[in-house]
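Incident log, structure service

09:12 report received: a user says their structure output differs between two submissions of the same chain.
09:20 pulled the input from the user's history:
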Amino acid sequence: MHEKMGGRMELNTMEDWEKWVELARDDPEKFERERSAVIKELIMSQPARHRHRSRQLQWKIDAVRKTSPNALCACIRIYDMLMDSVYGPKGLVEAIDQLYRNDGEPEYREVTVRKKGRLLDFRRKKEREKQL
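09:34 re-ran on a clean worker, output below:
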């Protein structure tokens, strides 16, 4: 079994897959703890701007798993969610189509850039002077 730093299991090889299957069969509670920990680790490894959306998506996936009568049903429902996000309204395909409306030429939009704010220094005056 390959393990990540911190003793977490990975899923990179068939051997890893078999270990996850064995764990799910033999100790479902430990499987859920490990699964949750690996997912949290993956989300935290993402850039900060993507973490909130990833947590929302994982919450939705977990809700589907909990409300499904069995694992196969959960798998099908999650697959349907994926297909909707690609082919459904406001999905990936529609977003790409909107980019290329004019005979294959991308449609450019004006983007508003936020101005950066000024960082306020709340340290005591003596502490600020030490660093100068």
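09:41 both user submissions now match this output. Likely a transient worker issue. Closing.
09:42 reviewer note: Residues 48-67 form the longest helix (20 residues). The chain is about 60% helix and 0% strand.
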